[in-house]
Specification:
The chain has helices at 15-24, 29-98, 101-229, 236-247, 251-261, 264-272, 289-310, 320-335, 354-364, 391-404, 416-422, 470-517, 521-594, 596-660, 664-667, 670-702, 711-724; strands at 3-11, 317-318, 368-373, 425-427, 430-433, 436-442, 448-454, 732-740. The protein is of the alpha+beta class. Strand 4 (425-427) and strand 5 form a beta hairpin. Helix 2 runs antiparallel to helix 14 (596-660) and helix 6 (264-272) runs antiparallel to helix 10 (391-404).
Length: 742
């Protein structure tokens, strides 16, 4: 329910009332106090009384509103009924117009025809129901047979599993011991074979070690003589010419040196001086540490002999660390990179791997110089291979390379190899070679590499230095060969013992197998019986499986037949339902045409009753709306009266507060009170005048508000109100009034 706000302004006092208030203010203070108390009691009672009236009016209004809502709902319902009755009446009129004797006869004939259709459809449903019943019976029988076949198949499958398990157990019993014995025999024979192979291998190792000892002994006997005889001696004229050239590599000094050196012819002469000893013709691995030691010591001794002839007192050294570095460098930067330094003809090679030298020098943090020679490719007896090279080949390669380095290489190299041999503290103009150690390595092409390292405490290239006494190196080779022989003999002895044990195990396993073969007849009978039982069980299983498949197929066919019969029954039932619905519709048509007069009369009566009900409901709604309007007016009046009572009570309370708040000095002198009241009276008059002017401005629209109580009470109250105005800043009060509207 919406509420409309109404605002009224009420003048609390007028000029005439103010004059009376001033007169009454001249009375005694005690009398004024008594009047105030009485007025407060009166105004409070008025507030309570008017609020009760408001509550009663609100209740009356709510009841009236409920009645209006109920009446409105009844009007709506009656209106809908009229609409429905009107439609029914129109239908009845149309039915009456169609109710001719011809139409009735035609509709009756149609009912008779449709009854025949319904009877036929009903007969079809009954017949199809019989078909479904028969199909269901066949399907149930097929299901029972399929279930029985499935159980028989499961039983046959279990029998096969049981027979298979029994056969496995029998076969396991038959073969377990024999298999174990056979495996033992096989293992023993395998161990014996391995032991025999190991004995043969160790025997070969012993033979090889004995040959190596013999070769090493021959080397020990011959190497000292080789080292003393395989020296390269330079003439005084060559040394002088070389020193002049190295000091001043002019064309004149180069020609003089070339003349004294005699070139390639002298190289061949030196090469022919190499002592060839049959004791050195033993196949060795160039990477073997002992061979490496022998080669590097041999090369360093040749070089140091030349340096002594040249007048130098500083010697090159040889060490295991320098040899390892040389082998690692050649593998990484020549073999792995397929770097052929000389090529296949000697003139199509890549030359030195300078990038590799720089990288390896950085890795070792030292200076490196490299000399390279034809190595195994140009010695006088023809080209050797890395796989079949001998100690003689290797020593001759080193001798030939160093001899060749003493002469002009031709091209841009000039005398650089000789320079690398005879310089002191520097090589090819590069400083930092104050402690030179030589490492020798052969690449995969057969070429020799001589790596000159400056050894320091930081790079450890001088560690594990070799003795430059060739005899010591040769003796170490012999010692190693003898140690290898002793180790091979010890291994051969162990393998021979193992072979004897293995052969004994073979004999024991053969005896065990023979004993088991004589005691396996019973196990063989059990296996034969189990196999027969398994074959029978498998035959039964196949028969049961064929029967099961046949019964499953029959069950499927019966199920399909039942489903088809049920579908036909549902179709017949649907046809019957349609025919019955059509019959009911035709029968209703006949009934409507036959009873057209009665139906029309009933529809007319229903329509008239609906109109009458609507009229009654509309009248009731009007009456309820009138009652609601009255209740709304009474509620608005009660609320106005209650608001005025509240305002008077508030003003009376304000006056009481003003009077009770006077000071003690004011109460001591009546003359002072009179003066004060007169002064206040003038102030009150001014204030009231302002309020009166506001009231006159709005009075034309508002009028005087209703009052409650008798005249004496109102006069007394208004007198107190005038005194209360002494403490107020304005004479107008506004309040809000709520009016209830639908």
């Amino acid at each position: 329910m919406n509420k409309k706000k109404m605002i009224r302004l009420t003048a609390l006092v007028g000029v005439a009332t103010a004059t009376g208030v001033v007169a009454e203010a001249n009375q005694a203070h005690a009398a004024t106090t008594t009047t105030t108390e009485t007025t407060n009691q009166t105004t409070n009672a008025s507030v309570e009384s008017t609020q009760a009236a408001v509550d009663a009016a609100q209740s009356t209004f709510d009841t009236a509103q409920t009645s209006v809502d109920s009446a409105q709902a009844k009007v709506t319902s009656a209106s809908n009924n009229v609409t429905s009755a009107s439609a029914a009446l129109s239908s009845a009129i149309a039915n009456k117009e169609a109710a001719t004797s011809e139409n009735i006869a035609s509709a009756t004939s149609a009912v008779s025809s449709q009854a025949v259709v319904v009877a036929s459809a009903s007969q079809a449903v009954s017949e199809q129901a019989g078909v479904v019943s028969a199909a269901a019976s066949v399907q149930a029988s097929a299901q029972a047979e399929a279930t029985s076949a499935s159980a028989s198949l499961s039983s046959s499958s279990a029998n096969v599993a049981s027979a298979t398990s029994a056969l496995s157990a029998a076969e396991a019993a038959l073969t377990s011991d024999q298999s174990t014995a056979a495996n033992n025999l096989s293992a023993a024979e395998s161990a014996a074979s391995s032991a025999s192979a190991a004995v043969s291998s160790d025997q070969a190792a012993v033979d090889n070690a004995q040959a190596a000892v013999a070769s090493a002994q021959a080397i020990v006997d011959a190497v000292a003589e080789v080292q003393s005889s395989d020296v390269i001696n330079m003439s005084v004229a060559y040394i002088t010419a070389l020193k002049n050239y190295l000091a001043n590599p002019s064309s004149t000094n180069a020609a003089a040196l070339q003349e004294v050196a005699k070139g390639a012819d002298y190289v061949k002469e030196l090469q022919q001086k190499f002592k060839s000893d049959a004791s050195l013709d033993v196949v060795v691995d160039p990477s073997d540490p002992t061979v490496q030691e022998a080669l590097s010591v041999y090369a360093v001794n040749l070089i140091n002999h030349l340096r002594n002839q040249y007048g130098l007192t500083t010697a090159f050294g040889a060490s295991a660390n320098a040899n390892v570095a040389a082998i690692d460098f050649v593998k990484k930067y020549y073999d792995d990179e397929d770097w052929n330094i000389f090529g296949t003809t000697g003139s199509d090679g890549k030359g030195h791997n300078k990038n590799g030298l720089d990288a390896y020098a950085d890795q070792l943090n030292t200076s490196i110089a490299e000399d390279a020679g034809s190595g195994l490719t140009t010695w006088v007896n023809g080209k050797a291979t890395m796989a079949t090279t001998t100690l003689h080949n290797l020593l001759y390669a080193v001798y030939s390379d160093i001899a060749t380095m003493l002469f002009d290489d031709g091209g841009t190299n000039n005398w650089s190899h000789a320079q690398s041999i005879f310089e002191d503290g520097t090589i090819l103009g590069t400083d930092g070679f104050n402690n030179v150690y030589l490492g020798v390595a052969f690449d995969k092409y057969g070429y020799a590499h001589y790596e000159l390292y400056n050894a320091t405490e930081g790079n450890h290239l001088g560690n594990n230095a070799y003795s430059l006494d060739v005899q010591t190196a040769a003796q170490a080779l012999l010692t190693n060969a003898q140690a290898s022989l002793a180790s091979a003999k010890a291994s051969l002895q162990r393998m021979t013992t193992n072979l004897m044990v293995a052969k004994a195990a073979v004999v024991a396993a053969q005896n065990q197998l023979a004993a088991l073969e004589n005691s396996s007849a019973n196990d063989l009978v059990a296996v034969t019986k189990a196999r027969t039982q398994l074959a029978s069980a498998e035959t039964s299983y196949q028969t049961a499986l064929a029967t099961y498949k046949q019964k499953e197929e029959a069950l499927k066919k019966a199920g399909d037949n039942l489903a088809a019969a049920q579908a036909s029954l549902e179709a017949a039932q649907a046809t019957l339902a349609t025919a019955k619905a059509k019959l009911a519709e035709l029968e209703e048509t006949v009934a409507n045409l036959t009873n057209a007069d009665q139906l029309l009369a009933a529809a007319q009566a229903a329509y008239e009753q609906a109109v009458a009900n609507l009229t009654t409901a509309t009248g009731n709604l009007g009456a309820a709306q009138v009652d609601l309007a009255k209740a709304e007016s009474q509620l608005a009046l009660a609320e106005d009266t209650a608001e005025q009572a509240k305002v008077r009570a508030a003003i009376a309370d304000q006056v009481d507060q003003q009077l009770n708040g006077s000071t003690a000095n004011d109460r001591q002198s009546a003359g002072q009170d009179a003066t004060s009241l007169k002064t206040n009276g003038r102030a009150l008059t001014a204030t009231v005048a302002t309020a009166s002017a506001a009231k006159q401005k709005q009075g034309a629209n508002q009028g005087r508000l209703p009052q409650t109580g008798n005249d004496d009470q109102e006069a007394s109250t208004m007198a107190l109100v005038g005194l209360g105005m002494l403490g107020m800043a304005t004479g107008l009060y506004g309040y809000k009034k709520k009016k209830l509207t639908k």
